[in-house]
Amino acid sequence: MEDTVFARLARHLDTLPVGYPATQSGVEVRILERWFSTREAEIALAMSGVPTGTIELARRLDTAPELLEKELDVMVDKGLIFRLILPDKRLYNLVPLAEGMWEFHINNSTPEDVKLLREYLDTFMQKGWYGTPTTQHRIVPISESLEPGMEVMPYDRAEEIIRSQSKIALVTCICRKESRELGKGCGHLKEACMAFGSGAHFYLQTGRGREITREEALAVLKAAMAEGLVIQPGNGQKVWNLCLCCPCCCALLGALKKMDKPALVAHSSFYAVLDSAACTGCGTCEEKCPMGAITLGESAQVNRDRCIGCGVCVGACAFEAVRLRQKDDPYVPPRDMVAMQLKIAAERGLI
């Protein structure tokens, strides 16, 4: 493959904690060729995942700061990089494909973009997102699946995650949007992703989401639980985002389901158990389980290797024959996004 500025950028993006793995087909480079101009690729090569001010980036690129800032802001608008606006300056940094550039293209993706991304997603999910023991998301159960008196940490309760936020942006789900464009959409919530804190500010400043109150966010969560969606917050005790995912469209759940033992990969503190005496064999839990972890014999059976502890089966069972049990060693997420990224970087041998 020719060593173009876009090929160099692909290798550079692969040095981020969440990598940008290469393929034999070079589809990852073709994606960048569609999204970046040559100049923008050169700018990105001078950047890293660390938020950096315009003056320092201008020094690296030997260009005027005021001109560079305009170029950087165009790159922000195109969904190529992240920007943090502080009272006295603006900071810019690279982001991975996901969570990052892919989601940032919510307003401007094209059919050709979708085609190339779908060609690349299997490789990215296998070697990028799920390429390390620590991943960017975890699973928390729907609230009605938690039994009274169960000791559950606040970061494992979706309602508490939302109540702790001061700024919330509601965003259209990129997975469902692209599935609809491919004629494979579902009827689930369109606006089903939430960004918090600085991420919320970014989505609102760039017109990629709309601001909602905590009460409105809780109402969205309630609707998602009623639809049997899987709750996936960012993998930290301090949470920066929360996605409400369906197995029919979600790239993350789709990649997990292809695995032999998704329970060994998904970060979750719970698993489902069945009461065979109460089970009527109706098959609802088998139908609703996003991982195919439940099968029917004389009564339903749970395959622990496949159960990710989402609690969807509990909410679906009209006979109270399913409940969640907490693991003996509950998952303890990293402190925050920075701690998560450092952990992933260490697992990849980058630090």
Summarize the structure.
This protein has 351 residues and is of the alpha+beta class. It has helices spanning 5-13, 27-35, 38-45, 54-61, 65-78, 97-104, 111-129, 158-163, 174-181, 197-205, 214-226, 251-257, 284-288, 312-316, 337-347; strands at 52-53, 81-85, 90-94, 168-172, 191-196, 210-211, 230-233, 241-245, 270-274, 294-296, 300-302, 322-326.
Explain the overall architecture.
The chain is an alpha+beta fold. The protein has 15 helices and twelve strands. The chain folds into three domains: 125 residues, Orthogonal Bundle (Arc Repressor Mutant, subunit A); 113 residues, no CATH class; 70 residues, 2-Layer Sandwich (Alpha-Beta Plaits), CATH 3.30.70. It has a five-stranded antiparallel sheet. The longest helix is centred in the middle third of the chain and has 19 residues. The two termini are 28 Å apart.
